[in-house]
């Protein structure tokens, strides 16, 4: 297969982790007889510095003309520490998600056998965890009207959802549940929020189309607790944009590190594959960031093309690295650790 992949490295550790995902993907392509044409493009603070905006038209054109997008991370402290900045790296990510129609962000959480004993959570609680969040990605409070009034003394962010937006996300959730454990949890705050009541009502109306799926409705605050209390009781969780953002960072504690959490952002057209973590500015340029989240995002990319064996080859080599202690410092637990690029080289060499 010939694949054109837009490569958006971004900021901070983005370029470092992307380099490793490219090495590993190229090794997989060589092994299975594929050809990848990488098409680098600017995004985030790097794009603001270069051309004044975080998701330039040229980058959008490159994404649109590719088969998929592999994304690193964006964000820079000079913007994080300046609330008055009008142009921000994060706007680029949001604009890109909207422009590419990426309404469903698939964020899996699973445990790795060799890391079970290292988790701050008890082994018997997390063992066997295999759940997936479907985070709605192009609506809700992220995209509602926002602003200031009363001479800047009052701020507002509106949360808006349409029934159609909930339906298309929930449909993906039901379909995914049918291929897995046939359990779906709708995470909302329907005891307080009108948008959540629309979510609940919409999902309830869809239940009859999927009689085999056991559906539960849980409030987001309780899920925040149960997620770390009994993570292996969940299968597929669907939720709105902000709740999904927060709960998936929390879920990284179950797997063992933010540096292990991949994701796929999907719509009806091209897919974007990105770690859930950010640009981790404290680690930028130090060769210490864990590249596995980005490498596993590349595995999701291959699988989304229907290339299951290629995806499995990546998952197997990541497991092998974890078993053999070929890990960055976030997973070293005081033991030996390796650099970002050493881990990437090792993964590529062992494909
Ligand atoms: N998708 C994205 O591009 C994305 C996601 C989240 C945050 N951000 C941006 O990133 C910047 C930093 O945000 P933050 O510090 O809240 O979140 P972050 O995800 O960058 O880092 C939070 C913590 O997670 C750990 N971590 C993250 N990535 C890791 C990796 N690859 N290996 C090992 N440990 C890792 C580190 O302990 C780090 O301190 C901000 O500008 C924010 O807006 C971007
Ligand atoms: C950087 C930010 C806009 C982004 C989000 O909130 O979606 C990030 O936290 C993520 O999880 O991808
Ligand atoms: Mg986030």
From TrEMBL:
Name a GO CC annotation attached to this entry.
Answer: cytosol
Query: Is NADP among this UniProt entry's keywords?
Result: no
Pathway info: Amino-acid biosynthesis; L-leucine biosynthesis; L-leucine from 3-methyl-2-oxobutanoate: step 3/4
Q: Which GO terms describe its molecular function?
A: 3-isopropylmalate dehydrogenase activity; magnesium ion binding; NAD binding
Per the entry, which co-factors are needed?
Mg(2+); Mn(2+)
Important for catalysis, annotated site positions: 142, 189
Annotated Isopropylmalate dehydrogenase-like domain ranges read 4-347
Which residues are involved in binding Mg(2+)?
Answer: 221, 245, 249
Q: Return the Gene3D superfamilies for the record.
A: Isopropylmalate Dehydrogenase
Give the UniProt record's GO annotations in the biological process aspect.
L-leucine biosynthetic process
Q: Which InterPro entries match?
A: IsoCit/isopropylmalate_DH_CS, IsoPropMal-DH-like_dom, Isopropylmalate_DH
What keywords are assigned to this protein? Amino-acid biosynthesis, Branched-chain amino acid biosynthesis, Cytoplasm, Leucine biosynthesis, Magnesium, Manganese, Metal-binding, NAD, Oxidoreductase
Has keyword Amino-acid biosynthesis? yes
First-level EC class: oxidoreductase
**Catalytic reaction annotation:** (2R,3S)-3-isopropylmalate + NAD(+) = 4-methyl-2-oxopentanoate + CO2 + NADH
Cofactor note as given: Binds 1 Mg(2+) or Mn(2+) ion per subunit.
Query: SMART domains recorded for this chain?
Result: Iso_dh (SM01329)
Per UniProt, where does substrate bind? 97, 107, 135, 221
Quote the subcellular location field of this record.
Cytoplasm
- Give the EC number(s) listed in the UniProt record: 1.1.1.85
Q: Name one Pfam family in it.
A: Iso_dh
UniProt-listed NCBIfam families: leuB
- Describe the task this protein carries out: Catalyzes the oxidation of 3-carboxy-2-hydroxy-4-methylpentanoate (3-isopropylmalate) to 3-carboxy-4-methyl-2-oxopentanoate. The product decarboxylates to 4-methyl-2 oxopentanoate.
The family assignment reads: Belongs to the isocitrate and isopropylmalate dehydrogenases family. LeuB type 1 subfamily.
Subunit comment: Homodimer.
Identification of the protein by name: 3-isopropylmalate dehydrogenase
**Protein species of origin:** Hyunsoonleella flava
Protein's gene: leuB
